[in-house]
Each structure stands twice: as C-alpha cells, then as structure tokens.
Amino acid sequence: MRETQRDEALQKTLITRLNRVEGQVRGIRAMIERDAYCDDVLSQIAAARSALDSVGKLLLESHIRSCVAQDIRDGKERAVDELLTTIGRLLR
Questions:
Q1: What domains can be seen in the chain, in order of their start residue?
Q2: What is the pTM of this model?
C-alpha cells in the first residue's frame, strides 16, 4: 500500500466532510427504517452523493498538485496514465 503525506488542514477538511457524509448516510438509513416518503429519501441520497463527490474533488486536486506533479518531475510517465484511470473511475 502506497502512502501520501497530506497537509494537516486538508486532512482535517476531508475528515470533517466525510463525517458529515457518514451522518447523512445514517440519516438515510433511519428514513428508510421509518418508511419516509421515497422522494425525500432520494433527495437525501443525492445530497450525500454530492457531498462525497466534493470530497473526491478536493482529494483529486491535492493528488494532482502533489503526487502527480512530483512523479512527473521525477520522470515517472506512468503518473499520467494512472491519473487518467483515476479520473475515468470518478466520472462513471
């Protein structure tokens, strides 16, 4: 498993947002358990998905600015292929 050193502020931001997503998912489960109206549940699912996408965008930006940029400076051409694969997964 490869590792990355993240800026403390970024790590805190990512964890805060992930905690929020986790709370949203728990709320969605509770809505289903109490038979909440389908449209209301679907709206909460969309909100959770959007919040998770936001985490992904922040992480991708950080990845490009740090890991990918450093690999390119080091002459590791595979970094571009890896980045393209990662972006492809995110856009599915």
A1: 9-90 (1.20.58.1000)
A2: 0.87
